[in-house]
């Protein structure tokens, strides 16, 4: 099995059986996000204690890329410091928005590397990054709805 097939399996697994799907109780930060072109809609919930993300969940509906990205994101940031999470966001964003011909490094982003292939499909970049932009809004405690447009 080559790396692309493995990555496709990771994406399919997380889209079919998303991790950390659901809400968090009262007191959780939350933000809503939408990708009007694809129809993806999600809400990200965060429990932050001090500077650590103690719990993170999401709910909503979207395409396989959007759902897999949200699921992978929640696994990647749970238990991380907010500063480390913001750095991971930047690394992930750089990977998925780089030009297809660019040499990229996915070192340091773990399973999120499965989404690197979306950079070859500009319309899918928005699907992969929606959860991350919504997470950022929740971290900033913003109430405005995040849109990929």
Would you summarize the structure shown here?
The chain is about 40% helix and about 20% strand. It has helices at about 5-15, 65-75, 80-95, 120-140; strands spanning about 30-35, 40-50, 50-60, 145. It has four helices and four strands.
The total tally of domains equals 1
Order of strands across the main sheet? 3-2-1-4
Q: What share of residues is helical?
A: 40-55%
Low-confidence runs:
none
Classification by helices and strands: alpha+beta
Number of helices: 4
SSE series: HEEEHHHE
Q: Which outline best applies?
A: globular
Query: Radius of gyration from the CA trace?
Result: 14 Å
Mean pLDDT: 92
CATH fold-level label: Sufe protein. Chain: A
How large is the share of residues in beta strands? 15-25%
How many strand elements?
Answer: 4
User: What is the CATH C level class, in words?
Assistant: Alpha Beta
CATH architecture: Alpha-Beta Complex
Distance between the termini: 36 Å
Structural features, described:
- With 149 residues, this protein is an alpha+beta fold.
- It is 42% helix and 19% strand.
- The protein has a single domain, classed as Sufe protein. Chain: A, CATH 3.90.1010.
- It has a four-stranded mixed sheet, covered by helices on one side.
- The N and C termini lie far apart (36 Å).
Question: Features of this protein?
Answer:
149 residues, alpha+beta, 4 helices, 4 strands
What topology emerges from the helices and strands here?
Blueprint: H1 3-16, E1 29-35, E2 40-49, E3 52-61, H2 64-77, H3 82-97, H4 122-139, E4 146-147
Parallel strand pairs: 1-4
Antiparallel strand pairs: 1-2, 2-3
């Amino acid at each position: 099995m080559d790396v692309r097939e493995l990555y496709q399996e990771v994406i399919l697994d997380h889209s079919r059986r998303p991790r950390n799907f659901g809400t968090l109780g009262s007191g959780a930060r939350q933000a809503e996000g939408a990708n009007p072109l694809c129809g993806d809609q999600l809400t990200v919930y965060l429990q932050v204690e001090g500077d650590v993300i103690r719990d993170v969940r999401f709910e909503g509906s979207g395409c396989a890329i959007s759902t897999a990205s949200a699921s992978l994101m929640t696994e990647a940031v749970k238990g991380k410091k907010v500063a480390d999470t913001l750095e991971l966001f930047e690394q992930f964003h750089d990977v998925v928005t780089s030009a297809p011909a660019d040499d990229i490094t996915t070192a340091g982003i773990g399973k999120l590397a499965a989404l690197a292939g979306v950079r070859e499909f500009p319309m899918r970049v928005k699907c992969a990054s929606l959860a991350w932009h919504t997470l950022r809004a929740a971290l900033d405690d913003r109430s405005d709805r995040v849109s990929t447009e």
